[in-house]
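User: Could you go from structure to sequence for me? I need the amino acid at each position, not a summary. Structure tokens:
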């Protein structure tokens, strides 16, 4: 918002000035610089105004300057010696003087802020166009619209406010209505009836499946399964999140309802982000539920996929669905933060029941949990563990070596993760293969290398050597993030941690102390984190990484991350999975604190 009303200025340093002036001197050019100055007369003392340009005639605001010209200026009073100057001087168009004008953002390559202001002014002054605009806004707000007359008053206060207080009130009211619109739309979506979505699961059959398991389910697992089965047996499509950290038993928790739905004759698919995890899920279902026909579908799968199988796979499932028209009745998306919204919906329609599983959900999903009525089932870990997490800067890198040596001497395992696997000479220090060679020199006979380009046999052999204790140190890429369990793994080091997202780092941390106990997770960044002259980008990076020092709970971490990044577009369900949410008022966006204030 820009206030063009006259200001009662005392002409002290840093005072705001806005008012009429008269030019009393012709523009004079400064030596060796393209800067021009001229003097103006005000109701008080004279002011000197400066601007840059090859010549006044080549500028937008000052091309008609001449002695005696009367105009309106806005700026800030500065004093240099005995001379008062008007800093950041802005020439006010006569039609705008004395008014409070909203500032409109420029949309790059589409429209400038000034052009947008002019277009809005045309709409406000044209009765037919304005009526259409009111109808559009009324429809966007839906059930929470206060009506055309109230919207008319609100639009006038937003675009033609009489004061800054009125404008602030209008912004707050527009945000309040927007939050109500989001809540209303989410509630309508959650309560919609889709008779074909109902999946009646045999309770007695499910109990028999549970009893055959070689382990007991936790109370949180039992509760989640019971509630999921209840929702599946209704005519309201399931849209829910299963949240649990590594080791909490997410797979068996969603596998039981999935198997129950498959036994009821429904089409069931489980989508995972990579082949090792998809293979592990398929193997676990086959092991515990031998009567189920499971088909694993990955990028390397060959042959026809049977129609009556429970499908487990990677994004290859999407290609299969597009090729055959296959749509799931029940879709489970494991590690949902790894998939885009389009990928998560490719196997579904309006009747599909969708359960997303993760340790750290994306901000958009968290927003739907908090404000969209989406249910969440939180699992508690089986093993009690305490992982000390610390951010380490370049001056402290000797600490990494000490920690590795101490851990190996104690008979425990170490994982050190590097971001690159290609042999890139320009970034030798962070290359995983070069790192493995350096660590092998420091710890001869104790190091194995693990990355995605190894064959499945080579990966298995490397992991077995670590698990058996033959080589206690594994140098790896982010392949360690999911689906890998190593006994006695108590130290994790991530090199160039600034390159990874919060969710990925938390998943890496989850590899530690899987059986319980103590662990250490060190995030190394190649700069001094205590440097008082850090760039803004690096300061933001440090703030982001320190979130992991504050909590070990994945759901709590997701909440902190969403508060920092925003929930994304909650109104339209668009692809934006973080950032500000769109609203029915174009150009107005909602941040997490706006949602919280409006919801309260």
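Assistant: Here is the amino acid at each position, in order:
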């Amino acid at each position: 918002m820009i206030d063009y009303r006259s200001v009662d200025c005392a002409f002290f340093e840093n005072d705001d000035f806005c008012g009429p002036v008269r030019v009393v001197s012709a523009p004079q050019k400064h030596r060796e610089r393209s800067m021009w100055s001229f003097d103006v007369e005000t109701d008080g003392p004279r002011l000197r105004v400066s601007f840059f340009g090859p010549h006044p005639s080549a500028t937008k605001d000052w091309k008609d300057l001449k002695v005696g010209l009367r105009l309106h200026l806005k700026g800030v009073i500065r004093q240099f010696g005995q001379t008062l100057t008007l800093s950041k001087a802005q020439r006010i168009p006569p039609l705008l003087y004395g008014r409070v004008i909203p500032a409109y953002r420029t949309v790059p390559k589409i429209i400038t802020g000034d052009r947008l202001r002019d277009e809005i002014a045309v709409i406000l002054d044209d009765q037919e166009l304005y009526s259409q605009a009111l109808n559009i806004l009324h429809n966007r707000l839906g059930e929470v619209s206060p009506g055309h007359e109230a919207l008319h008053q609100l639009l006038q206060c937003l675009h033609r406010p009489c004061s800054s207080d009125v404008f602030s009130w209008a912004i707050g009211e527009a945000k309040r209505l927007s939050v109500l619109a989001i809540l209303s739309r989410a509630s309508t979506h959650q309560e919609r009836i889709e008779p074909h979505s109902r999946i009646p699961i045999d309770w007695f059959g499910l109990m028999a499946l549970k009893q055959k398991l070689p382990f007991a389910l936790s109370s949180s697992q039992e509760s989640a399964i019971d509630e999921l089965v209840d929702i599946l047996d209704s005519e309201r499509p399931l849209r829910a999140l299963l949240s649990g950290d590594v080791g909490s038993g997410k797979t068996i928790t969603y596998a039981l309802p999935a198997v129950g739905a498959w036994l009821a004759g429904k089409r069931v698919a489980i989508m995972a982000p990579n082949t090792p995890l998809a293979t592990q899920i398929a193997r676990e279902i086959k092991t515990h539920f031998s009567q189920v026909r499971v088909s694993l579908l990955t990028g390397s799968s060959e042959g026809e996929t049977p129609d009556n199988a429970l499908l487990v796979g990677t994004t290859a499932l999407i290609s299969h669905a597009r090729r055959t028209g296959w749509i799931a009745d029940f879709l489970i998306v494991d590690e949902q933060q790894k998939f885009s919204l389009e990928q998560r919906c490719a196997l579904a329609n309006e009747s599909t029941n969708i359960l997303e599983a993760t340790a750290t959900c994306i901000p958009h999903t968290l927003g739907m949990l908090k404000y969209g009525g989406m249910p969440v089932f939180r699992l508690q870990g089986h093993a009690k563990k305490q992982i000390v997490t610390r951010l380490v800067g370049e001056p402290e890198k000797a600490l990494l070596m000490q920690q590795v040596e101490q851990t190996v001497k104690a008979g425990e395992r170490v994982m050190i993760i590097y971001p690159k696997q290609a042999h890139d000479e320009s970034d030798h220090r962070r290359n995983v293969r070069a790192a493995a060679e350096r660590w092998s020199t420091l710890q001869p006979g104790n190091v194995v290398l693990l990355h995605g380009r190894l064959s499945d046999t080579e990966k298995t052999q490397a992991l077995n050597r670590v698990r058996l204790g033959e080589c206690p140190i594994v140098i790896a890429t982010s392949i360690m993030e999911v689906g890998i369990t190593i006994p006695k793994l108590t130290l994790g080091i991530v090199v160039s941690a600034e390159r990874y997202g919060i969710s990925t780092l938390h998943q890496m941390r989850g590899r530690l102390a899987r059986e319980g106990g103590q662990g250490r997770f060190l995030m190394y960044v190649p700069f001094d984190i205590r440097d008082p002259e850090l760039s803004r980008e690096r300061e933001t990076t440090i703030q982001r990484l320190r979130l992991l020092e504050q909590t070990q709970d994945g759901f709590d971490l997701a909440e902190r991350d969403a508060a920092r990044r925003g929930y994304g577009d909650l109104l339209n369900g668009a692809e934006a999975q973080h950032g500000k949410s769109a609203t029915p008022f174009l150009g107005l966006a909602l941040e997490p604190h706006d949602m919280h204030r409006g919801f309260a």
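One structural detail worth keeping in mind: The first strand starts at residue 2 and ends at 3.
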